[in-house]
Write a structure and sequence with these properties.
This protein is of the alpha/beta class. The protein folds into 2 domains: about 30 residues, no CATH class; about 170 residues, 3-Layer(aba) Sandwich (Beta-carbonic Anhydrase, Chain A), CATH 3.40.1050. The protein contains 10 helices and 5 strands. A 5-stranded mixed beta sheet has the order 2-1-3-4-5. α3 links the parallel β1 and β2. The termini are far apart. The model has no long low-confidence stretch (mean pLDDT about 95). The structure holds zinc ion. The site of zinc ion has 7 residues, from α5. The site of zinc ion (ZN) has 7 residues, from α5.
Length: about 210
Amino acid sequence: MKEIDQLLLSNRAWAAEMLHENPEFFQRNVNLQRPAFLWIGCSDSRVAPDQMTQALPGGLFVHRNIANLVYPTDRNLMAVLHYAVNVLEIAHVVICGHYGCGGIQAALDGTVEGPIADWLDHAYQVLNDHRAEIEALPPGEERVNRLVEVNVRDQLLHLAGTEPVQSAFAAGKPLTLHGWVYDLRDGHIKPLMRIDADTVLAELPQPERVLL
Ligand SMILES: [Zn+2]
């Protein structure tokens, strides 16, 4: 059997299983989505937000891109963010990076070209802004993983500065931004930092190093 056919077969098996557990499941999802969370994560296939958090369909509103970068000029992400905050009235936005991120590794190596290099512009910026700390570490895994952590922090700051988030903060909406990192080696998500309306962005500290 072709690999692609296996996806379709697995889908039928999954749908049957969901229906068996809850005959109302799909009907309930047809007319309404009320997710409580917006997830902004890396496109990496090993970092699967729904499975990692045991969220069911309807639980997470999701945006993914290489290295979980936040550009205020990214129409895709800005549309997702606007809809999440203003229409779905989501109260928690998570940016989740992951150790061993290929995009962050590429930014560190500076070896990619073309569309990926263009996309990684913000990651290069993070490296430039934290170069002294990163280069003080041994080359290899430690540098990549620390850059992953500070990248989450800096993207969280970009997110906090966007129009939908600033407007929600100003209007007193209960919105909190969370910076997390996922560890491929043990499957654990580790919270790094959070931002809400009371956070003074200029005083946002560096995240603690959580990977030894
Ligand atoms: Zn990644």
